[in-house]
Amino acid sequence: NAGVMQNPRHLVRRRGQEARLRCSPMKGHSHVYWYRQLPEEGLKFMVYLQKENIIDESGMPKERFSAEFPKEGPSILRIQQVVRGDSAAYFCASSPIGTAPNQPQHFGDGTRLSIL
Amino acid sequence: TQLLEQSPQFLSIQEGENLTVYCNSSSVFSSLQWYRQEPGEGPVLLVTVVTGGEVKKLKRLTFQFGDARKDSSLHITAAQPGDTGLYLCAGASGANNLFFGTGTRLTVIP
Q1: Is B37 helix (H, G, I), strand (E, B) or coil?
Q2: CA distance linking residue B22 with residue B31, whole number of Å
Q3: Which residues of chain A make contact with B90, given a CB cutoff of 8 A?
Q4: Structural contact between residues A72 and A5, judged by C-beta atoms closer than 8 angstroms
Q5: Cross-chain Cβ contact B100/A42 below 8 Å
Q6: How many CB atoms neighbour CB B33 within 10 A?
Q7: Sheet holding A5-7, edge to edge
Q8: Comparing C-alpha atoms, which of A83, A77, A16 is closest to residue A46?
Q9: In this predicted structure, what is the pLDDT of residue A102?
Q10: CA-CA distance, A101 to A104, in Å (whole number)?
Q11: Which residues contact B92 (CB under 8 A, 6 or more apart)?
């Protein structure tokens, strides 16, 4: 299966711990997007990355959240000192090029983060 | 912030009925995409519309992009239980991300 792979699928953390979410894009895709989804809501854009570069992080909270997409390996979304409000589903999407009128983004199945 | 509002938010219908879901915004988008999301899974792309007034058909689903490229509709004919899911519209404006709508949760009762 050459789809977007996210792991873990479920992650439980206690308040104050760190959460690391991983995303491997589809083969041949070099653009990665992270979104957050609260229950019964649409997806909210967080960050757009290319290999080794953050292109747009306008949707990222100013503190505790960071993202990277290294030359080798998956993209990582890191949340430090988690709080209950961070509980959500986090989705990663990839595309071969940046957003274009008819260029779709392919989504993974998400990581469901629960904060105790 | 570009907002996409979908209506209705929830819809429950009997198998065989027709329905229409709306996606409205005050902003102009270069393209609009429709996704369906099943519980526990990521959104799956159904269609992309690019040209104002464009109509695309996917089996029993008909998608229309408004002339001004600010709104879209999804019409399902003879709904089936397999159509149950969360339907999301998403607009692209040339920026580096998609703006997702608030979603319509459809339940088709056998």
Answers
A1: strand
A2: 16
A3: 42-43
A4: no
A5: yes
A6: 25
A7: A5-7, A19-24, A75-79, A65-68
A8: A77
A9: 59
A10: 8
A11: A99, A100, A101, B29, B30, B31, B32, B33, B98, B99
Average pLDDT in the B1-14 region? 88
Q: What is the pLDDT of residues A13-62, one digit of tens each?
A: 999 999 999 999 998 888 999 999 987 778 999 999 998 899 889 899 99
Type of residue found at A111: T
Copy the structure tokens of residue B49. Answer: 């519309």
Minimal CA–CA distance to A108: which of A13, A32, A11? A32
Across the interface, of A41, A98, A107, the residue whose CB is closest to B96 is: A98
- pLDDT top residue among A51 and A113: A113
Tell me chain B's radius of gyration from C-alpha atoms: 13
CB burial of residue B42 (10 Å; 0-12, 13-18, 19+): buried
Answer yes or no: do A108 and B42 touch at CB < 8 A: yes
- Encode pLDDT of B46-96 as tens digits: 999 989 999 999 999 999 999 999 999 999 999 999 999 999 999 887 656
Give me A87's structure tokens. 């509980």
Distance CA A32, CA A91 (A): 10
